[in-house]
Structures are given as C-alpha cells and as structure tokens.
C-alpha cells in the first residue's frame, strides 16, 4: 500500500517497536503476534482457549507452546523445577531418554533464540508456580546470548524487558570449567572463530554483566581467554544418556544442596 | 515409455535393528573372507551413486500423476587403494561400527551426537559434521537400509492442523482442529508415525510452504469453513513430514493433495520435492512421493497482487529455475508457470494477498478449491 515508506520487513518491525515504546505497551497488545516455535514437556497441565494441555499424562511427549499466552489458565504442576534448554536436539535427547520420568520437572525449549510466546509462557509459569528455573546452553557465545535473553530480555525488545525477562533464571551449564570436571576429550573443544570472539567481546560490554551477574562475566572471560567453546552434545562421548542420567541431575543437586551457592544465579 | 522401469530401482530397506546389525556383520565377514582367502585383496566398497547422473524417473503409465524419481544402479567406489580417497573408505567402516554399537544398546542418536562420538573415537578420520552426514549416506547406500533403521534420528519440522484425528497406540486421541494455531507437531520417529491411527472427514489436504501462513490459516480456523487438513514442513520438507503425508495419501486416497507456495522457483522446488522425491536421500525418498497439485500462487493469481508486492528474482532463484527446467519430471503446466516466472523476472509471496484483508486467504483457497483451479 505504501511502498515508498515501507521497503522491507525490518522497516515495519522497527515501526512496530517504536509504536510500542510510544504507547508503552507490548506487541501482543497491538495484536501483533509472531510464529510460535517453543516446546514444553513434563509435569504440567493447563488450559488454553478451551483446549486442555495435559502434559502430565505423557511426560515425555513434546507439546507446542501456545502463541496466545494471555489465554493460558488453570496451570497445575507437580514439578520441582523448570529446565530451559537452548536447542531442540537437546530437548529431543531428554525426551528420548525419558528424562521427565525420572525427574519431576518441566522442560522448555525456545529452539534457539526464544520467541515472545515462549518467554511470556516461561514468565507466566514462574509467576504462578514459583519454581526455580535452570538454563542449559552450549558453552559458546550464542548459548550465552540465549541465556541472557531469557534472563534479562533482548536488546531489540529492551522496552518490553519488564514483562519478558525472567530474573529467576539460573545458569546451570555448560561452563568452561565443566570440560575438565566431566572429563571430556580434547577433540570436543572447538576453537572460537573470529566472529565468536567479536561476539563475546560485545557481550562482555553489556551493563548487567558488571552489576547483576559478575560471576557470569568471569566464565565468559575464561571462554574468551582459552579461545575454545564446546556444545552440549559433546557429553554423548561418554554415553548417549550422560546428559540425562548424570550431568543434569548432578548439577541440580549442587545448586540445591548448597543453597548459598548462588554464584551462578 | 518404458515398462518395468522400477526393475532398475535401488532402494534402502526399512529394517528392524537386528537385521541392520546382521547386514553390518555380513559386510565385515565378506571383507575378511576376501582378505584371508588364497588370493587376498582389500575389497572396494560399492556404493550407489547419489548424483543426478544416476537419477531415473518412473513415469506413471496412465497419467502423469504417479511419477517419482529414484536412484538406479550406477555405482561409485570407496577404495583403500586410492591415496586421496582412502580416508573416505575408513570413515564408512567407522560409522558402521558406531551404528552397530548404538543399535546394540537399543538407542537412537542424532547426527550431531554421532559427530562428537566419532570425533573422539577417531579424530584423524572425521573433521566436520558435513563429512559425517555424507558418510552416513554412504552407509545407507552400502547396506541398503534407511538412515532411520541405522538408529539415526532426525527431528522433524512438520506440523499438522485441521480436520484430522490422530492417535498414538495406547494414547489419547488428538484432534488437530483443536491444537490452536501451533498445530500438532510431527514426530521425527518414523516408527511412531507408522503406528498412528488417523481418521478424517476432510475432503482436501493442503501443504503450506511457510509457517506464518500455516499459523494464520490455523488461527482463523479455515478448516471449519472448508473441510481441509493443513500440513507444513516449514520450508524444505524433511523425511518425517513426507512420510506422514504419504501415509495420509494412502489412508485417504480420495483426498486430493494441493500445495500453497510462494510465487518463486523455490516454492515450486518444494512442491516438486513432495511430489517426486529427492536425490539427496534418493534411496529412501522415492517411497514418499505423492500426487501433489499446485493450488497457488500461480500465474492467474498475479492480478490479485498489487504491483508493489513484486520483488525481482535473485540469481539463486534463477539457478533453481534452471535446475527445475532441466528436469524431465516437471509437468507441462508447471513448466509454463515456471517460464512465466523467469520471463517476468519477478516473485511474490503469499502474504501479498493480505492486501485484500487478513481473512482473504481463506476465501481465496475456498474459491480455488470449489473451482477445481489447481494443476
């Protein structure tokens, strides 16, 4: 309709953000929605627009996170914690290993950078259930960026951070120090590319790394200093179910047993 | 026209783990036999060639609708004797060994996990994910068994919505029209998909290229106005989505399958992949070819789209167009549409139809179906 003003998608996206800031509202208040790609499984039950999501009946089945989070109600859960995983492949691995059968929890993934519905859904769960939230990402700049998106919000949607961020998110792993701790062979370490290094340096400049989570900063600096990164899948080197059977349970126990051990939160 | 073209076909079987292990054992025993016989030799591995030169077409006898592509009996070798290619030979054995172990444990593994395991066990042989993926296809070619049978699990990007009831064995029935705008996620587990019980009262199946369009249609509950099932692979179709679509076409043979894609060569390429199969996984994909018709966007819809919504074709688009044009499977009418695209030098997305209002898409689809305006 107005091709001279709107030449491409990014122009429209920026305009929407400007309107949200001006009117001090969120995108979904303007009825602008994004495509939903988050998945959830575990000990959870809720209703959305009349439809029942009974994840408890089949805790190892993945359900898509509803796009219209404002219509989610009657949330019931017997979980002890919420686990966020960065990648769909890790989510699948947990599903295949029937992680939720042995562990009473809710597992969520945004399949990469989390979209708005996933972040809002997470925020809703935290508000209603008051459960601890642990985040599992790759030990690389992208993983770290995704972790901070869940915790602090994204840079592009900074105006909406108040309702989208989840300050309860704790960094469960994977840390650079886990490499030796869990005995991973040298070949699993991949070198940081030039792009990775640039990205890490940009991440280090973010303000919340100084004030709110200085310990996260230390880990990031360690990554940069060593010049290496590694992915969660590296744990499959030991056994395919190492992640489900050993890594995650032992990490969670560490956090729980030493409640004062808020160093990573 | 050739009869019995499918005698030339080479295909990968779908087998239970015990049979795959047996095939691996046979491969090892044969190799050892030749190595330890009176006139010893290191045998070469003969793999089905996965290039377009080995691509054949099975043309439907009565109509064009039953056409699919498959790989034939052209072989390439992996040999230890050729200095540059010796590593490729070793890689095949390493992957077979790893798959054997995983099948013994009765587990499944993703390609990425397999990469890490191979990287640690044989660091001199494997350096990249791409190498691992290619070697997996080599093993599929050698043992003639599907990737899934080897224990390798690929996740699916597909979703379904609309007038379909699915039930996994021993689970509750899921109504795909009540799944909200996010739909029912298609599992990557082909065994599970094979056991799904499906029921429908739909009259048409519509493949949607893009997730956003799928979501729009699902949200507007278009299937309450027109009796359809919506399915998308959110881009280039993965095996699981193709598998399920094929099962649907077999279970409900009276339902025509139509595709709603963007007006550009990539959209047509996606339609053709659903319709004919692909070379990349040519030993398996041929099974899942379906008779897919082109609903839209097409040449006669261009008048509905405002001038400003058209964008120029990029070099990549022209490359895809060229490759499609040279394929003998492309139907005459599709060929004409492609020629029109290239000639006009323009492309347009389905979203351009929103110019007429956000509910226009549902009306557009309904009108086209009622007029049987699909090719």
UniProtKB/TrEMBL annotation, chain A:
| Alphabetical list of InterPro entries matching this protein | Meiotic_Spo11 (IPR013048), Spo11/TopoVI_A (IPR002815), Spo11/TopoVI_A_N (IPR013049), Spo11/TopoVI_A_sf (IPR036078), TOPRIM_Topo6A/Spo11 (IPR034136), WH-like_DNA-bd_sf (IPR036388)
E.C. numbers: 5.6.2.2
Cofactors, names only: Mg(2+)
- Any single Gene Ontology cellular-component annotation: nuclear chromosome
Q: Where in the cell is it found?
A: Nucleus
User: Does the record's keyword annotation contain DNA-binding?
Assistant: yes
Query: Which EC class, in a word?
Result: isomerase
Catalytic reaction equation(s): ATP-dependent breakage, passage and rejoining of double-stranded DNA
The record's section on Pfam families has: TOP6A-Spo11_Toprim, TP6A_N
SUPFAM superfamilies from the UniProt entry:
DNA topoisomerase IV, alpha subunit
Q: Mind listing the GO biological process terms from this record?
A: meiotic DNA double-strand break formation; meiotic DNA double-strand break processing; reciprocal meiotic recombination
* CDD domains named among the record's database cross-references: TOPRIM_TopoIIB_SPO
The protein's GO terms of the molecular function aspect are: ATP binding; DNA binding; DNA topoisomerase type II (double strand cut, ATP-hydrolyzing) activity; metal ion binding
Q: Which residues form the Spo11/DNA topoisomerase VI subunit A N-terminal domain?
A: 2-32
* Residue ranges occupied by any Topoisomerase 6 subunit A/Spo11 TOPRIM domain in the UniProt entry: 81-252
> What are the entry keywords?
DNA-binding, Isomerase, Magnesium, Metal-binding, Nucleus, Topoisomerase
Q: Could you tell me the superkingdom of the organism this chain comes from?
A: Eukaryota
Identify its protein family: Belongs to the TOP6A family.
Per its UniProt record, what PANTHER family does this chain match? MEIOTIC RECOMBINATION PROTEIN SPO11, MEIOTIC RECOMBINATION PROTEIN SPO11-1
- Protein name, please? DNA topoisomerase (ATP-hydrolyzing)
UniProtKB/TrEMBL annotation, chain B:
- What's one GO BP annotation on this UniProt entry? meiotic DNA double-strand break formation
Presence of keyword Nucleus: yes
Q: Which organism is it from?
A: Salix purpurea (Purple osier willow)
- What is the active site of this protein? 116 (o-(5'-phospho-dna)-tyrosine intermediate)
Q: Which reaction does it catalyse?
A: ATP-dependent breakage, passage and rejoining of double-stranded DNA
**Which positions fall inside the Spo11/DNA topoisomerase VI subunit A N-terminal domain?**
88-152
Cofactors required: Mg(2+)
> What protein does this entry describe?
Meiotic recombination protein SPO11-2
Q: What is its EC number?
A: 5.6.2.2
Q: Which SUPFAM superfamilies match?
A: DNA topoisomerase IV, alpha subunit (SSF56726)
Residue ranges of the Topoisomerase 6 subunit A/Spo11 TOPRIM domain? 204-369
Sorted keywords for this record are: DNA-binding, Isomerase, Magnesium, Metal-binding, Nucleus, Topoisomerase
The kind of enzyme this is, by top-level EC class, is: isomerase
GO molecular-function term, one example from the UniProt record: DNA binding
Concerning its family, UniProt says: Belongs to the TOP6A family.
Q: Carries keyword DNA-binding?
A: yes
List the InterPro entries. Answer: Spo11/TopoVI_A, Spo11/TopoVI_A_N, Spo11/TopoVI_A_sf, TOPRIM_Topo6A/Spo11, WH-like_DNA-bd_sf
Annotated Gene Ontology cellular component terms = nuclear chromosome
């Amino acid at each position: 309709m107005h091709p001279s003003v709107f030449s491409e998608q990014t122009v429209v996206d920026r305009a929407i953000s400007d309107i949200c800031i001006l009117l001090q509202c969120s995108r979904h208040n303007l009825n602008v929605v994004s495509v939903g790609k988050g998945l959830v499984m575990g000990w959870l039950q809720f209703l959305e627009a009349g439809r029942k999501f009974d994840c408890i009946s089949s805790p190892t089945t993945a359900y898509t996170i509803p796009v219209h989070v404002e219509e989610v109600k009657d949330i019931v859960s017997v979980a002890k914690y919420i686990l966020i995983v960065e990648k769909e492949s890790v989510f699948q691995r947990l599903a295949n290993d029937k992680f939720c059968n042995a562990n009473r929890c809710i597992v969520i993934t945004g399949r990469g950078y989390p979209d708005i519905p996933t972040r809002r859904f997470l925020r809703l769960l935290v508000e209603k259930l008051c459960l601890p939230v642990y985040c599992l990402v790759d030990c690389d700049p992208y993983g770290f960026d995704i972790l901070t998106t869940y915790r602090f919000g994204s840079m592009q949607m900074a105006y909406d951070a108040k309702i989208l961020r989840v300050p309860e998110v704790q960094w469960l792993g994977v840390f650079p120090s886990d490499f030796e701790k869990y005995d991973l062979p040298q070949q699993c370490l991949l070198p940081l590319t030039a792009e990775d290094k640039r990205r890490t340096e940009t991440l280090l400049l973010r303000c919340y790394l100084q004030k709110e989570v200085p310990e996260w900063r230390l880990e990031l600096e360690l990554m940069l200093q060593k010049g290496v990164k590694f992915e969660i899948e590296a744990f499959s080197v030991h056994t395919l179910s190492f992640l489900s059977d050993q890594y995650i349970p032992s990490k969670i126990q560490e956090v729980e047993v030493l409640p004062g051990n808020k160093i990573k939160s | 026209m050739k009869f019995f073209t499918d005698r030339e076909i080479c295909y990968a079987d779908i087998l239970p783990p015990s049979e795959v292990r047996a095939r691996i054992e046979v491969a090892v025993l044969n190799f050892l036999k030749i190595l330890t016989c009176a006139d010893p030799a290191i045998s070469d591995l003969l793999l089905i060639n996965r290039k377009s030169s080995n691509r054949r077409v099975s043309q439907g006898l009565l109509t064009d609708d039953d056409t699919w592509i498959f790989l034939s009996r052209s072989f390439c070798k992996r040999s230890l004797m050729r200095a540059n290619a010796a590593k490729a030979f070793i890689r095949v054995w390493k992957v077979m060994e790893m798959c054997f172990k995983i099948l013994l444990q009765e587990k499944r593994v993703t390609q990425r996990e397999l990469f890490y395991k191979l990287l640690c066990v044989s660091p001199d042989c494997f350096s990249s994910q791409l190498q691992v993926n290619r070697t997996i296809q080599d093993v599929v070619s050698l043992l003639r068994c599907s990737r899934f049978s080897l224990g390798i699990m690929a996740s699916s990007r597909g979703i379904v919505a609309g007038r379909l009831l699915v039930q996994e064995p021993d689970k509750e029935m899921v109504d795909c029209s009540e799944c909200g705008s996010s739909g029912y996620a298609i599992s990557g587990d082909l065994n599970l998909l094979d056991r799904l019980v499906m029921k429908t009262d739909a009259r048409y199946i519509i493949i949607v290229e893009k997730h956003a369009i799928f979501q729009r249609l699902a949200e507007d509950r278009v299937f309450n106005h027109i009796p359809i099932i919506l399915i998308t692979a959110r881009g280039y179709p993965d095996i699981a989505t193709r598998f399920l679509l094929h099962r649907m076409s077999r279970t409900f043979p009276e339902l025509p399958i139509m595709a709603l894609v963007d007006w550009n060569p990539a959209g047509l390429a996606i339609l053709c992949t659903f319709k004919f199969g692909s070379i990349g996984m040519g030993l398996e994909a041929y099974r899942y070819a379906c008779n897919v018709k082109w609903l839209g966007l097409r040449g006669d819809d261009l008048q509905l789209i405002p001038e400003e919504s058209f964008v120029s074709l990029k070099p990549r688009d022209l490359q895809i167009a060229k490759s499609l044009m040279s394929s003998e499977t492309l139907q005459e009418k599709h060929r004409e549409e492609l020629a029109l695209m290239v000639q006009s030098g323009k492309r347009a997305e389905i979203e351009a139809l929103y110019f007429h209002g956000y509910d226009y898409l549902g009306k557009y689809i309904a009108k086209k179906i009622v007029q049987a305006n699909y090719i």
